[in-house]
Amino acid sequence: MKIRYLFTIALALISSAATAELYKSCNIFAGQKISCEEPYTRKTVILDRKLYRSCNIFAGQKISCEEPYTGKTVILDRKLYKSCNIFAGQKMSCEEPYTGKTVILIVR
Prior knowledge:
Blueprint: H1 2-18, E1 21-29, E2 32-39, E3 42-48, E4 51-58, E5 61-68, E6 71-77, E7 80-87, E8 90-97, E9 100-107
Antiparallel strand pairs: 1-2, 1-9, 3-4, 4-5, 6-7, 7-8
């Protein structure tokens, strides 16, 4: 019985470690992720509870978010990173694939 219990705990730990998510600053070329740096710390716009919001990120983890965002930001749109216009947290329109740096969620 103890072995089964320990195995279940070990499996749970492995499962949660395998799906760790961190926000990182990444280099994007023609809409494709090229490389990423260490976990991000600062404010950025992210998708949070189905709306784009300006959120505080510390060591790659979301700490807090503000009201829905209005402005321009880089998001994943149809499998490419693009500069998009956001109004009240909703995507309105996007431009051609983005080249530059942006913060994205990396799932390990």
